[in-house]
Amino acid sequence: MTLQPAPSPAAPVAAAAPAVDAAGAAAPALPSLSPSRAADFKTCPLLYRFRSIDRLPETPTVEQARGSLVHAVLERLFDLPAPERTRPAAAALVAGAWQELTAQEPALVDALAQTPVEEFLASAGPLLDGYFAVEDPRRLEPGERESLVEAVVAERLQLRGYVDRLDVSPDGELRVVDYKSGGAPREAFEARALFQLKFYALVLWRSRGRVPRVLRLLYLRDAEVCDYTPGPEELVRFERTVLALWEAIEKATETRDFRPRPSRLCDWCDHQAHCPAFGGSPPPFPQPLPAAAPVDPRPGEDV
Q1: pLDDT below 50 — which residues of the chain?
Q2: Which of 94, 117, 139 is the C-terminal boundary of a domain?
Q3: Among 182, 208, 231, 235, which is least packed by CB within 10 angstroms?
Q4: Which pTM was predicted?
Q5: pLDDT score at 29
Q6: Distance separating alpha carbons of residues 260 and 253, to the nearest angstrom
């Protein structure tokens, strides 16, 4: 990977080690926020409540299960020696990757209630074709895969999430790569995908002192690549946006006021039965509240 140097960033705030008091005891953990949960609140505050506070169960869709499968295959593909990372080798990994996934997450099997397993496994083929149309994995050596990245901002909020792939050039420049098993998005979905990538860029800058040179989305269904180049000033503004978002989440939690925000995305929501916008009622507010929002399920939540 050959990348041009990024502008020199302002001095970053490094991720903080766990604080200790005078007696050496660990201080209470900071609240945490992941890109998907932050995007949930931006999309619909009530959806954030259902997922992060009520923790209501959701049934995986076939598309989400397929996204998880393709993510797993692409991760395992890079375990092979570079010359062996071919399209037939990827196909040979599909069945084993599905077995491992369902052993770890049995709920994924529920997504296939109406779909024969053989048909489902075959449906990963066009997405793998899309991947090989836009990248040659024999020419890549990722620095990290399925990597949990974390940073503390403003000494009060921990940002954390999983990066599908992090490429590192010989001079240390970073390229964040995110696989999307869906097609290239319309405007509403594109904004969510870009928010996710900026979130990762901010975390990497604050934890490692480098602004990623490239944020790359690989849309496997359409075999399209979307590159975005962030700058330090943009990430400073984005950090303010994330902190303001967290303040809004804290206020909504304190007042127990999470209002629905109906949109086209409601068509894909599992929680219409509990949503006032659809004639439902939210469950009682849990007591005590969960300590922090969970980190995103990996992978395939956002396909």
Answers
A1: 1-22, 297-303
A2: 139
A3: 231
A4: 0.84
A5: 83
A6: 14
Distance CA 28, CA 85 (A): 45
- Whether residue 149 is found in the same domain as residue 225: yes
Dist CA 180 CA 127 (whole Å)? 9
Q: Do β-strands 157-168 and 174-180 pair in parallel, antiparallel, or remain unpaired?
A: antiparallel
Phi, psi values for residue 63, rounded to 5°: -65, -40
**94 and 215 inside one domain:** no
Query: Distance between CA atoms of 30 and 251, rounded to whole angstroms?
Result: 17
Q: Please enumerate in sequence order all residues whose Cβ is within 8 A of that of 226, keeping only pairs 6 or more positions apart, or say none.
A: 184, 193, 216, 217, 219
Spatial CB neighbours of 212, under 8 Å, sequence gap ≥ 6:
6, 173, 174, 175, 176, 200, 201, 204, 205, 230
Dist CA 90 CA 70 (whole Å): 9
| Pairing status of strand 214-219 against strand 32-33 | unpaired
Q: What's the distance, Cα to Cα, between the start and end of the chain in Å?
A: 26
188: how many CB neighbours lie within 10 A of its CB?
11
Between CA 46 and CA 69 the distance in angstroms is: 29
Name the domain boundary from 113, 139, 165: 139
| Spatial contact of 9 and 232, defined as CB atoms under 8 Å apart | yes
* CB 229, CB 214: distance < 8 Å: yes
Query: Do residues 147 and 94 share a domain?
Result: no
Q: What one-character-per-residue DSSP string does 126-152 give?
A: HHHHHHHHH--GGG---SEEEEEEEEE
Amino acid at 209: G
pLDDT tens, residue by residue, 256-279? 999 999 998 899 899 999 999 999
Residue 39 is encoded by which pair of tokens? Answer: 């995007």
Tokens (6 digits) for 278: 């659809």
* Contact in structure between 78 and 137 (CB atoms under 8 Å): yes
Q: How many CA atoms lie within 13 A of 286 on its CB side?
A: 12
pLDDT for the residue 193: 80
Number of domains forming the structure of the chain: 2
